[in-house]
């Protein structure tokens, strides 16, 4: 039973900018991100996250949203 969810939440992938491996799948709320950008004037992405392949923290860019 797949219910279609409407709303600003999106599933996205996070990709290591150094080795290009696909490390994280996350959900984010577009509206919240936009608000945050407006209030704090900072962007959430790319994120600094730990990469298992590089074995260190690298910046992770948003890969295309997954289905
Ligand atoms: Zn990496």
Shape: flat
Strand content: 35-45%
| H and E order | EEHEE
Largest sheet: 4 strands, antiparallel
Helix content: 10-25%
Low-confidence runs of at least 5 consecutive residues: none
The helix/strand class is alpha+beta
Tell me the distance between the termini: 16 Å
- Small ligands present: zinc ion
The mean pLDDT is 86
Number of domains: 1
**What name does CATH use for the topology?**
Rubrerythrin, domain 2
Major β-sheet strand ordering = 2-1-4-3
Q: Going by CATH, what is the homologous superfamily?
A: Ribosomal protein L33
Break the fold down into its secondary structure elements and pairings.
Blueprint: E1 9-16, E2 22-29, H1 30-40, E3 47-51, E4 56-63
Antiparallel strand pairs: 1-2, 1-4, 3-4
The structure holds zinc ion (ZN).
